[in-house]
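fyi for ur records
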Amino acid sequence: MREFYGQSDVAATSGRTHELCAKLRSPMTPKGPISLEPLRHAPDLSWRVPGSKSITNRALILAALAAGESELEGVLTSDDTEHMQRGLSAMGVRFESTGPTGLKVQGGLEKLRAPTESVFVGNSGTTVRFLTALSALVPGTTTLFGDENMAKRPIADLVEGLRQLGIDVVCPTGCPPITVRGGSFNGKSVSMRGDRSSQYFSALLMALAGAPEPVHVQVEGSLVSRPYVEVTRRMVAAFGGKIESDGTGFWVHPARYVGQKYVIEPDASSASYPFALGAASGGKITVPGLAEGALQGDYAFLNVLEQAGAQVERSSGATTVSAPGGLRGIHVDMHNISDTVMTLAALAPTFTGRTTIVNVANIRIKETDRLIATVNELQRLGQKVEHGEDWLSIEPQPIRPATIHCYDDHRMAMSFAMLGLLRPGITIEDPSCVTKTYPTFWSDVARAYRAQGQTVPWAETVSG
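which gave:
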């Protein structure tokens, strides 16, 4: 964790993009393609995952808006969270490291200022969406831009929502770059489609506490990934805000956020990988710190594993997953836990029978079109896969050795890495993309090998 006080680290031109991204790479990340080997025995181990990206970036926004000092613990350090810190630093927020996962934040709405340079957000969806809404409260002009993948990620729904609230927004393509001329919200209501991304709503719900009067945020149609919005509501309440839900959306009341001590729980999306490995391997894996009562909706991935035949032990301090009898194919709606779709799909070739995942059109506007990417890589592995606009179905076949293309998507790399720990012939083309949310992922996989006395396959290829 580093301190960020000025704007010197904010990339202002595309020519600095690669330099900035290189700074964010973990020194233990493999340099290039790695070929995995199956674990010799079913694992029985404890696997500690880092703090939640979703909660970390929400906590950073709320602490930036909160008067006084906030102390955050369990902070994730990754590409996405460092992009968020750099963006907030450029707006006048002060950060100080207090340990490996600790951070002090000196914030306050009155202290925020428009950046003097354009802010680079990489391919971080939470960063660009949350900072776009926050910029509406900052007098002056804020421009956010990302890498080539970010330039394809839609943000038009949020742009239109901000315009309904009197904010001047320039976004010619409907995707970043985006320029916001902020100052103050002007309006009592806003309506946005709910079927594309819950992050648009979370962004507004956090920022609208700075509006001069209550604002009604109406959801058009169904709201995708609603559990993430509930995380936002609970965190807003922890910092002193008030959001009420009604039959059509949310009422956000004006509030002055106050600095807090806030503990960030382990990332439930990242925990899906060891959870799935523990179940699909027939072994037993415990994730400490993530337990019953977890804030994150993706903790419900455990219900999916139970449906497939896993045994789950939930306690007040940890969760353990095992499946001595193996897993069976299932039919499951993963609309509300879409970040774990690829975890299930990548391991479906090890299940008995067909697995069908439905109602997941929302994964098509993530870091890549995750539905098509998953279909492509499963077919590359010799699997029988069918799919439609919002579903895919996998009929297990013998696995054909192949190199998995990651599409610069961290979840592609991590999901198929779990398959590589169970079946031979899996090579991950771009292992370094995991730094987006889980920089220590390969170190944790290496510990799984060492726990069984195996040599780490990529031991000679780590950077640094």
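The two ends are 18 Å apart (CA to CA). thats all i got for now
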